[in-house]
Amino acid sequence: xxxxxxxPADANDHLAFTQQLDNETSYMLMEPGERKPTANQHQHMVNxxxxxxxxxxxxxxxxxxxxxxxxxxxGSTIRNCRTASVVIxxxxxxxxxxxxxxxxxxxxxxxxxxxxxxxxLTVIEDNTGARAxxxxxxxxxxxxxxxxxxxxxxxxxxxxxxxLL
Length: 165
Fold this sequence. Notes:
Keywords: Acyltransferase, Transferase
Order of helices and strands: EHHEEEHEHEE
Organism: Marinococcus halophilus
CATH superfamily of one domain: Gcn5-related N-acetyltransferase (GNAT)
CATH architecture of one domain: 3-Layer(aba) Sandwich
Largest sheet: 7 strands, mixed
Protein name: N-acetyltransferase
Radius of gyration: 15 Å
Strand content: 35-45%
Shape: globular
InterPro entries: Acyl_CoA_acyltransferase, GNAT_dom
GO molecular function, one term: acyltransferase activity, transferring groups other than amino-acyl groups
Strand order of the largest sheet: 1-2-3-4-5-7-6
């Protein structure tokens, strides 16, 4: 498994990965089929992550196929520029292999290089595997966003978590 920064040539493969992820897990934000950017729109997004210092996008490759990613989105104002929101997604076949820990280490190193103070994220309440990973890595629960998402015909809670660096 190789973890590296995304490159412009990865845009189409990354888009295919995100669509597959939406189909294979119910723990990401979008429902299957909801993610519909054009190839050009996704290429633009990838280019933004490459060009802007406050953004980062790592991909996980297995034999040349994208199977995971981790994003960091730093604040864009003077008041929030020391904080980054984090999103991690892995295809279910790659869960519990230590890849999430490796991705979090990459994100933390990126954040420390930029002298960020805080990493934050939300996780669906019943995603116990991800919650355990984040807690193991030093993230602490800060609150509950009650009924913040509607999935599979019911409302679900999101847990807000953060780690101070």
